Amino acid sequence: MKDIKIAAFDVDGTLFNHITHRIEEDDLNCLNKLREQGIKLAIASGRPPYFVKEKLSQYFTFDYYICLNGTYIMDHAFHELYSEPLSKQDTENLVQDFTHFKQYLQFQFPEKGYLYAGKLPLQNRLMILLGRWGNFEDHRKKKTRHKQSLPLAAVSRVEPSIFKQIKPKYPHLQFDKFFGNGFDIHPKKTSKANAIAHICEHIGCTMEQAIAFGDNYNDLSMIETCGIGVAMGNAVDEVKAKADFVTKPCGKNGIYEACKHFEILK
Questions:
Q1: Name one GO cellular component term (predicted).
Q2: CA 77, 226, 263, 201 torsion: positive or negative?
Q3: Domains and CATH numbers, the chain
């Protein structure tokens, strides 16, 4: 049995049930039991800060919030602990490329998302569901918000043929697929794993004392790096292959099952 000090949870497909659109009571009960044992609880998501503040806080107050795949960390009171935004050059180049190719580009800032390029297709209802829409401003004419402060990350929708042209131009940026031709864009040096490591240093423990739960490609770094990596039953095959344990699907009490399996819960 590992001496677990921190548990990190992805949101979509791990904690947040897409069928009921909430965190289930069984999972909330498990989170409370972990907290009673002194284990710190962290969100590790591609979700932006504004979603975390407005939506997740309705269900539970976590000790830490890792947002936008590791580019931004907040404490329980939503105070910034860490930030690694896109560079000025990358921001300007992305605006130029996505405007030229007429592809969807939304920059994520702490307060809202700003659309810089592309159309607003009906499929964007999916982006609303995933929390990558929420507080939103159509900024395609102005394109000035990044001059106040640099974006934390970007959300894009790119046609496959155009993606092949764009991606090689950004070798130091990570393009995390979250659905179909939708990608989260952030610096390669940022990841959920690196963010968890930052928190571990902050609270005085090691990555071996961390357990991570996830289901999608952007969870691979923490699934592989934490002392225990748990894949949900609904996870993509790549995540399941790297996990130490595959538990029940989201909404089926899988978090509790994994904690009992590893004897984390007394």
A1: cytosol
A2: negative
A3: 6-83+190-261 (3.40.50.1000), 88-187 (3.30.1240.10)
